[in-house]
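Weekly sync notes, structure subgroup
Attendees: PM, AL, DS (notes)

Item 1: joint prediction request from the bench team. They want all two components modeled as one assembly rather than separately. Inputs as received:
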Amino acid sequence: MELLKERILRDGKVKEGGILKVDSFLNHQMDIGLLQEIGKEFRRLFPDESINKILTIEASGIGIAAITAQYFGNLPVVFAKKTKSKNLDGELYTAPVVSFTRGTQFDVQVAAKFLGPEDHVLVIDDFLARGQALKGLMQIVERSGAKLAGCGIVIEKGFQEGGRELRAAGVNLHSLAIIDSIEGGKIQFRQE
Amino acid sequence: MELLKERILRDGKVKEGGILKVDSFLNHQMDIGLLQEIGKEFRRLFPDESINKILTIEASGIGIAAITAQYFGNLPVVFAKKTKSKNLDGELYTAPVVSFTRGTQFDVQVAAKFLGPEDHVLVIDDFLARGQALKGLMQIVERSGAKLAGCGIVIEKGFQEGGRELRAAGVNLHSLAIIDSIEGGKIQFRQE
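Output from the run, pasted for the record:
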């Protein structure tokens, strides 16, 4: 997605430790016009009319998934939670996730009543690196008996293993921008 | 907002300890069509054309704020963070918040580069009860030198003190549904 790549080149910042900061337009401040274009692109990449639910994970996935859902006929969006809350009760699907950025482990959780065998689920997230969060969401989809339609990612770090592993496993994965290298602070995208 | 009140009566669940669960349409699963109506109502309540930024707090505020921003000419949305991350660096505005639902205290944080004296900020959140999160966001707006246009809340628990205190302090606060009592599991809205 050219518009996204241009934006990453213009406003993304490469930090030590393989960190790409896109906080000025994606995951701290959000450019809503850009999210609309991202949503349209996900619709083009996942045209399957039987998709009936979008699943994402708090926090950065939520805005992207909410805007994207508008291009899928206002499908319901479920966001998985990372922390226990008094608001989260009843039967839960959980999966363990190691966070690379935060240096912590946590359980990703979805109330069982919001996913089931009748669902055909598109998973949306902002970043794919090692694929931990995405694998956690996919485990939850599988446990619920729902069918996975695919995974839509805004930015994939192609120099980490998550995308390769998921594609090898046959997952219908689309990333709007795949970065193959950020060495020396220079962002290089994968050619499509 | 009648549509919202009807939805709360239909799908909201009252739990012990003054908890109102609206997870089937607002803060775990999101009804995007409802969020669009919420966004339109916020626009009607905050018609000030000089508003140039929307501020919310992760996680449940993000979807509401992102959809709402579309009715404000796609204004940028900044979401305050509740946890430290390698992605959050540089100068920060922080304010302490006690969470009633989670039984914890945390710092709400916004990168200083995303708020400043040139900003006229609308604060959006899903719930107002004791007003801790909202007061934290307002402190951050004040510290940044930005001007507060107002606060838009989806559901206010009118039987807790946050809304009363903020109105007494002159805050331009609008809640789309104010619940005056949930005693005995019966939801009673404030008459407007």
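Discussion: The first strand of chain B starts at residue 13 and ends at 15.
Action: AL to compare against the crosslinking data before next sync.
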